[in-house]
Amino acid sequence: MQIVKQYPIHKCGHAKHSISGTKCLQSMVGKSNSSRYIVATQDRELQDSLRNIPGVPIIYLHGKAPTLEAPSQASCKYAENVRKGLGMTEWEKETMRTLKEAAGLAENTEIKCKRKKRKKMKIAAHVKEALVTEVMKKQLEKNKIN
């Protein structure tokens, strides 16, 4: 109960003439959800109408567990439009490229592939010692012959 008391109370303005809870919540959320409400409801009609408004998270109960619904198509489209608006246009990219070339700051677009390091063979210590002694014997024999 302490947690609930921390949240502010928002008046809907429908005290004089009563309307249904669904219409009241829809009017509070509005067309853009400027107050950033998170709506928790089991009413399917209200959920369907709120899915058309971008940026309205919907919570419902699935059994005893509260479940946050995935972002609606309207929210995804809105986010994609915002993402496109924040990036540089093709004209701006081309202008940046030409200005960099003129200033001599253009980077080489060729990317060199890094070679993978060859894995070293792991040889047991006793085998390594045997190989070293064998090589040393061959070198001594060559030196004696010459």
| Strand arrangement in the largest pleated sheet | 1-2-3
Into which percent range does the helicity of residues fall? 40-55%
Distance between the termini: 98 Å
Number of extended strands:
3
Nearest-angstrom radius of gyration?
A: 35 Å
CATH class of the domain at 11-75: Alpha Beta
Low-confidence stretches: none
Oligomer: single chain
**Biggest sheet statistics:** 3 strands, mixed
Annotation field: number of helices:
6
Mean pLDDT: 87
In what range is the share of β-strand residues? Answer: 5-15%
Cα shape:
elongated
Can you tell me the CATH architecture of the domain at 11-75?
A: 3-Layer(aba) Sandwich
Structural class: mainly alpha
- CATH homologous superfamily (4th level) name of the domain at 11-75: 5'-nuclease
CATH topology of the domain at 11-75: Rossmann fold
| N to C succession of SSEs | HHEHEEHHH
Write structural notes for this entry.
Helix 2 (21-29) runs parallel beside helix 3 (44-51). The mean pLDDT is 87. This protein has a domain at 11-75: 5'-nuclease (Rossmann fold). The protein is mainly α. The longest helix is centred in the last third of the chain and has 21 residues, at 125-145. It has helices at residues 2-6, 21-29, 44-51, 73-86, 90-103, 125-145, and strands at residues 39-40, 58-62, 65-68. Keywords: Nucleus, Ribosome biogenesis, rRNA processing. Pfam families: Fcf1 (PF04900). This is rRNA-processing protein UTP23 like protein. InterPro entries: Fcf1/UTP23, PIN-like_dom_sf.
